[in-house]
Design goal:
two-stranded antiparallel sheet; 40% helix
Length: 623
């Protein structure tokens, strides 16, 4: 098993994170930060949004790579081996970066008169909503977290905050969200600058809908802990006068900045590479292509085998090296000398034929005779020292904006590159997510205004449109352009009628059979969360999907290879804290209270977080 270096000090909830002043880095709005001598609520609100980050580099570099393999959405370039079940390290808690501004605003308001403080109640509500989102994110990874005593040392709070129990936090957050909704609806004479709000441009009704939607997120995590409570929450939200996220205008999907002088990561997300050496699994890509799901084009990248590259292999007499799954979609002719000539794409045609995934078979990378078409690419797919990957990697420009794309071209052809840095747009919570939850809850018996099918159909259409919007705004490869290189190339933009075609497929339609329909809803949740790994992980844990033996989306079982599902991690790995760490006794007590052991191995499956304790094992399917 892996040995992890300590990515953050064990005192991650201690001194440095709790003593950072809000005055260090205000959002770039209207006033020079150097001139600010007292915390300004408007600036604190703007800076909270700037620091809100549930999707940073280390999360994508370490955790996402592992999560996608545990959920069988991705396969390493070398194939599945026993390293699959090695754990992933716990990253630093992200909620701290929001809580420090939440608590700073509390302090600033405490120095005001009661009348003046009341004018900032809605800022406080919005900041609390973001803190709850981040708290859910952190607790999904590891369980108990420091929250109620966190980020308060600068104003006399403790340097050694307690770890709150997840069940207590869920109760706290549900109450807080209700209070936030009330404040956003009823508080009067408020200071609320729309220019400070890149999320909703000052639309407080949409902030209230986000708060209500987070209650659905919590309810989903409670479904196997307290089903009655979860379904009650779903009914409350669906029938609430405040509403929930249910349209494009209400989606929590935004761009933080188009420029920031203090840190380009605010604008572009980061610039180091992630998701290295993994591609989409054959299971997921075949499922999406087979059902003409346009999202496959926005989540994964086309393989390198455009028709010009293919023709270059034909011209070199290397047609036998072209992977069979590519050749089966090629219409060609031969001349008098037996040379192959590309005529057209067969099957689904461009762009669909360019999406291919890796088999999930165990040790397939070491079985060249059987799986060489996928894994022997370093030899068979190389021409004049250029390797043309025959599989689909992830669309990394959906994750960060500073990345250069080089178009695959035949040897000797002019280089085509896209080096534009694009301000990054992220998706956090949307119409698709809320309606997929409501479809699930309706199937499980919640008292909702609409049937499951209505929520489900609305969710699928919304998910495709949301991914299309992100692809467009993030200017991912092949969106809106074929680069004028290959006459047979097609853009990946969403086309008229594609959503209707996708939703006409049996695998994408509810049938009236509760068991089958629940599986379909959970599959769609997992697909929708393809760019939100921790949410995909949480969905897989609570649903038992992919389900072993499923006719729709089968989980491959490795028990015969001595890698049973009981070895697949259900939480992140912990490092042993140093005895000199101020947080040492608190960390040890937290581990003990949750039944955790330091390290990796089978413990990461058996020692589960509170919200995961009653969930099905990997592959068992929904309860």
């Amino acid at each position: 098993m892996k040995r992890y270096k300590n990515i953050v000090a064990a005192a991650l909830a201690g001194v440095t994170l709790f003593c950072t002043s809000c005055r260090e880095d205000f959002a770039e709005i209207n006033q020079d930060p150097a001139a600010v001598t007292q915390g300004n609520p408007s600036y604190l609100f703007a800076q909270t949004i700037l620091e809100f980050e549930p999707s940073d580099y280390l999360y994508w570099f370490y955790n996402a790579t592992s999560i996608f393999q545990w959920t069988q959405m991705a396969v390493p370039f070398s194939g599945v081996t026993s390293t699959l079940v090695e754990g992933a390290p716990l990253q630093s808690f992200k909620s701290i970066n929001v809580l420090k501004y939440v608590n700073e605003l509390k302090y600033v308001r405490s120095q005001m008169t009661e009348e003046e403080s009341a004018r900032y109640e809605q800022y406080a509500a919005c900041m609390d909503i973001l803190a709850v989102y981040m708290g859910i994110f952190d607790s999904d990874f590891i369980g108990d977290i420091p929250y109620t005593e966190g980020a308060q040392a600068i104003h006399g709070g403790t340097l050694t905050p307690k770890y709150d129990r997840v069940e207590d936090l869920y109760t706290l957050w549900l109450t807080s969200l209700d209070n936030d909704v009330k404040a956003l609806a009823t508080a009067t004479e408020q200071v609320f600058e729309a220019s400070q709000d890149p999320i909703y441009k000052g639309n407080k009704a949409n902030w209230a809908k986000l708060a209500n939607s987070l209650k659905l997120k919590l309810a989903a995590r409670m479904i196997n802990i307290d089903r009655a409570k979860a379904l009650q929450l779903a009914s409350e939200v669906a029938n609430s006068s405040a509403g929930f996220i249910n349209s494009e205008a209400e989606d929590f999907l935004f761009n933080k900045a188009i420029y920031n002088s203090s840190n380009n990561d605010y604008t572009y997300h980061w610039e180091n590479d992630v998701l290295q050496s993994i591609g989409g699994s054959k299971t997921v890509i075949d499922f999406m292509v087979g059902n003409r799901d346009p999202r496959v084009r926005f989540i994964y990248r086309k393989n390198a085998w455009n028709s010009n590259v293919l023709q270059a292999f034909f011209d070199a007499g290397r047609q036998s090296d072209v992977p069979a799954y590519i050749m089966e979609n090629v219409e060609y002719e031969t001349d008098a000398d037996g040379k192959y000539r590309f005529k057209a794409w067969k099957g689904a045609g461009e762009p669909w034929v360019r999406y291919q995934g890796f088999p999930l078979d165990f040790n397939a990378g070491q079985q060249a005779a059987k799986f060489g078409d996928w894994f022997n690419y370093g030899i068979r797919c190389k021409l004049e020292n250029v390797t043309y990957y025959p599989f689909s990697e992830y669309q990394k420009e959906m994750i960060y904006g500073r990345i250069d794309f080089k178009l695959p071209v035949a040897p000797g052809d002019a280089v085509v590159e896209d080096k534009e840095d694009v301000p990054w747009w992220g998706m956090y919570m949307t119409t698709a997510e809320t309606n997929l939850y409501l479809a699930e809850f309706a199937l499980l018996g919640a008292n909702l205004p609409e049937p499951a099918e209505s929520y489900y159909n609305r969710a699928l259409a919304a998910s495709v449109n949301e991914y299309n919007l992100l692809a467009k705004n993030n200017k991912i490869p092949y969106y809106g352009t074929t680069y004028n290189y290959d006459p047979n190339e097609k853009v990946i933009d969403l086309q008229d009628g594609e959503i209707e075609t996708m939703m006409s497929k049996d695998a994408y339609k509810l049938s009236g059979n509760k068991t089958a329909d629940l599986e379909k809803v959970y599959i769609q949740q997992m697909l929708h969360f393809s760019m939100q790994p921790i949410d995909q992980y949480t969905t897989a844990r609570r649903s038992g999907l992919p389900k072993t033996g499923s006719a729709l989306f089968n989980r491959v079982d490795y028990a015969a290879n001595n890698v049973p599902v009981t070895l697949f991690p259900r939480r992140m790995a912990l490092n042993a804290p140093a005895e000199t760490d101020l947080m040492y006794p608190i960390l040890i007590e937290s581990y003990k209270a949750q039944g955790y052991t330091v390290g990796s191995g089978p413990i990461l499956n058996s020692e589960r977080t509170w919200q995961d304790k009653n969930n099905p094992q990997w592959g068992e399917g929904p309860k």
